[in-house]
Amino acid sequence: MFFSNFCFSLCSRAIKTNQDLLPETPWINIFYHDFWGTLLTHSGSHKSYRPLCTLSFRLNYAVGGLEPWGYHLVNVALHGAVTVLFTSLARLLLGGGLWSLLAGLLFASHPIHTEAVAGVVGRADEGAALFFLLSLLCYIHHCRLRGHAGSLRLAAWLLSSLACAACSMLWKELGVTVLAVSAMYDVCVFHRLKLRQIIMLLYKRKNNLLLLKVLLLAVWGVVLLACRFSWMGNKPPNFSNSDNPAADSPSLLARTLTFFYLPAVNFWLLLCPDMLSFDWSMDALPLIRSLTDLRTIQTVIFYLGLILLVWFGLWTSLTSRTKDTNGKSHHYINGRNGNSNGYSYQCNNHEHLSSSHTDINDISAQNGTNSHYGSRTSLPTTENVVAFSLGLLAFPFLPATNLFFYVGFVIAERVLYIPSMGFCLLVAVGLRSLYVRVQRRSSRRVLLFCSGVLVILFGMKTVLRNQDWQNEEMLYKSGIYVNPAKAWGNLGNVLKSQGKMDEAEQAYRNALYFRSNMADMLYNLGLLLQESNKFSEALHYYKLAIGSRPTLASAYLNTGIILMNQGRLDEAKRTFLTCADIPDENLKDPHAHKSSVTSCLYNLGKLLHEQGHQEEAISMFKEAIHKMPRQFAPQSLYNMMGEAYIRLNKLPEAEHWYRESLRAKPDHIPAHLTYGKLLAMT
Predict the structure, then answer these.
(1) pLDDT (0 to 100) of residue 566
(2) Please, which residues bridge with residue 333 across strands?
(3) What is the Cβ-side half-sphere exposure of residue 526, based on CA atoms within 13 angstroms?
(4) Which of 197, 376, 461, 505 would bridge 111 by S-S if both were Cys, CB 3.0 to 4.6 A apart?
(5) pTM for this one?
(6) What 3-state class would DSSP assign to 330?
(7) Torsion of CA 497, 503, 505, 507, to 10 degrees
(8) Do the Cβ atoms of 162 and 91 come closer than 8 Å?
């Protein structure tokens, strides 16, 4: 369902131009670089430390190079593995019947996962989810073995959980939140404590073992976060205002209202994934600048619903459990009267025993004790599952809320990959509760039919959405309605690569119509005009691009080349020198910047060489070699260095650089010709 020919240029920095994937690069470099191959401590690093994901890309590259099918195959396999593990988790919470299957099917077919599965870079979310679930399941097994296994075996499961949590974080940062979800399971599902009991537990410290386990999880989380923050240089990443406009807003009210609104939008995408987009940055979601904005009503409704669910999961069942223990009401196991699948109200002996056992456990839970060691086979109540599902929905989403630090996106559908597990559990447990409460068989059939229709609708939407990811052109066209500036700009790049220059030019102009200060689009339009020999107009757009982003080295480079070809040599020199002095600090792609700076120095040296200033030319060439990034092809630079030396009659130095040029590229024809002339001279 998710297999597609993913538009590979989206992964350009993470895969195609990432030097960490190459076999000649020491594999240990992966643990010092971010997801895009930039040194973590560099000021322009994205700080996305995901070495295990990058390592998986490197293995893909070793097996099949840049062939997309291998990358997609791994992504689809990961999604299948995550679905199996999630369904296993649902079985532990909902039993082995219809409702755990429904939760698994909802997760497998949810359209919000299309980006994470069809997009190769979405593997980070899948890998994090895999180890997230492994960590959680190990911790659940550790809890269920308490009182039934030796300390060594218990410690092994606990250590396995902690190790998997670390691995999950090394796939993607949000993986560390599994520790909070594990604590939520221990408190709300295994011990079945409610809010008042949790407060009493903290105040009176009746269950020191539970407090110790939660404290251990918290300490391990702090250790992981501290190590990660230290490893990335103790500095947060820098993002442009177009990545997250609300974070850059000077208005506290606008930032607050918008950030509170974003979780409501994300939840709506889970509930009704009708309008999806490859990118939600820039003005895709306009800022909420006043309380009179109608979207504040959606925010209020969302948080009221969330509070009601929290109240239901952590408060309401306290009184109902008290009634149960006094024999005044029937006790429901897992939301139904003594039945694991919810199909009948008849109970066999085993179910009566399970119900009685659960009542005893609930009495113990009110006292904050840990007598659940004897109830590891009983299923949690509906309230327990709701509380846990809310935790599974909320905790992994917390890093994306801008609550603790600003993030580099407005909405990212792939970020909802793990939180969607909590959503699927909520839907399954909600439908199961309705199934139990309705008495008529026809009503139950309608409910089952609606559940099936929901899975089918999700699957159909996923298939349709996957069609958008078949190629770049379809993907970008599908995003025009949500983010027209970004979509038109990317579509222009695709049309240009297809040779449709007029259509590409119009696409760039459409992008600039919606957002006129996009430096990348101004530069791309200038480049297209330059290739169409419209040099004056190209210069105009290059200057606009430089005005929008003064650090855009590639715009300086092409401006200098046009000026040099027009004979405006002094202007070209000044442009190249200005480019050479631009630092690479706080830049998204320092490697590309260094390549452009190196090319500027090369062209400046070439210009000086043609004017007869050989010493100055050699100085520029040496500076270019010093600043040259590893991926830069140096053969032309080395050859020009040899040309400058031969003009100074320094033949040994010239021969050295000709040899270096041929060593860098053995079939470099200009170096063969110049080296041949040198050999003829000597």
Answers:
(1) 92
(2) 336
(3) 25
(4) 461
(5) 0.83
(6) coil
(7) -100
(8) no
